[in-house]
């Protein structure tokens, strides 16, 4: 049987403009008094050592998993959902209405992607998976980190799990690092692209979209 056509969306910079979901969450935790000074030191220390935030989850070490998940959902409802781009969500909804399998593939935290997937009615979603031992976060990542070529492996996993026809599918992303994923699908779309991705898309004849032009923040009622 042929697989399902999918529409695979990156999140940060694609469906969400401005700051990333994780940075919004970190600021939320600080305001809520949920991050101790030593956790903030671990973020700064990682940055000074050349470890980007996407690879440094030590600030979550020791956090009680269910409480952090609850805080992540509150953060999504209060601060992330209102920042989703109407054009991006509208594009995703059109794919759903066409019978395509809408999917999310993002380097953000799995605890942040889960409420977004629920909000959009999406079952196929992959993000940075956090290790949990004894009910607490270890600050380590498990599995393939969905960044750069790592997204391709997660795309393969998603394809096997949900029966997707990747060569016939669509993918939407904003960053040059996403080129590996975009190259795997039949219909790549550069959304709000950075300079390098725009140049690549133009040279390859890929579709280019701007989901940010003239948009206001999208609300859950839209």
Question: What features would you describe in this structure?
Answer:
By secondary structure, the chain is of the alpha/beta class. The chain has a single domain (about 5-210), classed as HAD superfamily/HAD-like (Rossmann fold, 3-Layer(aba) Sandwich). It is built from eight helices and seven strands; from the N terminus they run βααααβαββαβαβαβ. It has helices spanning about 20-30, 35-50, 65-80, 85-95, 110-120, 150-160, 180-185, 195-205; strands spanning about 5-10, 100-110, 125-135, 135-140, 170-175, 185-190, 205-210. The protein has a seven-stranded mixed beta sheet with strand order 4-3-2-1-5-6-7. It is globular and about 50 Å long. The protein starts with 5 loop residues before the first strand and ends in a 13-residue tail after the last strand.
List keywords for this structure.
seven-stranded mixed beta sheet; Rossmann fold; 222 residues; globular; 7 strands; alpha/beta; 41% helix
**Number of discrete domains:** 1
Please, how many helices? Answer: 8
Shape from CA axes?
globular
CATH names the topology as Rossmann fold
CATH architecture type: 3-Layer(aba) Sandwich
Helix content: 40-55%
Report the CATH superfamily: HAD superfamily/HAD-like
| Alpha-beta content class | alpha/beta
Order of strands across the biggest sheet?
4-3-2-1-5-6-7
- Radius of gyration (Å): 17 Å
Query: Tally of extended strands?
Result: 7
- Main β-sheet: number of strands, strand sense, barrel status? 7 strands, mixed
Taken in chain order, the helices and strands follow as EHHHHEHEEHEHEHE
Strand fraction band? 15-25%
CATH class: Alpha Beta
State the end-to-end CA separation. 36 Å
Mean pLDDT: 89
Would you identify the regions where 5 or more consecutive residues have pLDDT less than 50?
214-222
């Amino acid at each position: 049987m042929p697989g399902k056509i999918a529409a695979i969306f990156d999140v940060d910079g694609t469906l969400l403009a401005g700051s990333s979901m994780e940075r919004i969450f970190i600021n939320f935790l600080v305001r809520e008094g949920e991050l101790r000074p030593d956790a903030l030191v671990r973020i700064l220390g990682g940055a000074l050592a050349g470890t980007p935030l996407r690879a440094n989850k030590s600030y979550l070490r020791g956090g009680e998993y269910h409480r952090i998940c609850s805080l992540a959902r509150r953060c999504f409802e209060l601060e992330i959902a209102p920042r989703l781009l109407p054009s991006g969500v509208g594009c995703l909804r059109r794919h759903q209405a066409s019978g395509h399998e809408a999917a999310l593939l993002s380097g953000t935290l799995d605890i942040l992607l889960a409420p977004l997937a629920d909000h959009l009615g999406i079952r196929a979603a992959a993000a940075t998976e956090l290790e949990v031992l004894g009910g607490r976060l270890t600050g380590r990542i498990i599995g393939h980190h969905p960044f750069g070529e790592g997204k391709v492996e997660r795309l393969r996993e998603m394809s096997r799990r949900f029966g997707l026809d990747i060569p016939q599918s669509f993918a939407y992303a904003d960053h040059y690092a996403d080129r590996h994923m975009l190259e795997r699908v039949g219909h790549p779309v550069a959304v709000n692209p950075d300079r390098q991705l725009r140049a690549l898309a133009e040279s390859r004849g890929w579709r280019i979209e701007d989901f940010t032009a003239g948009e206001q923040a999208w609300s859950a009622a839209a």
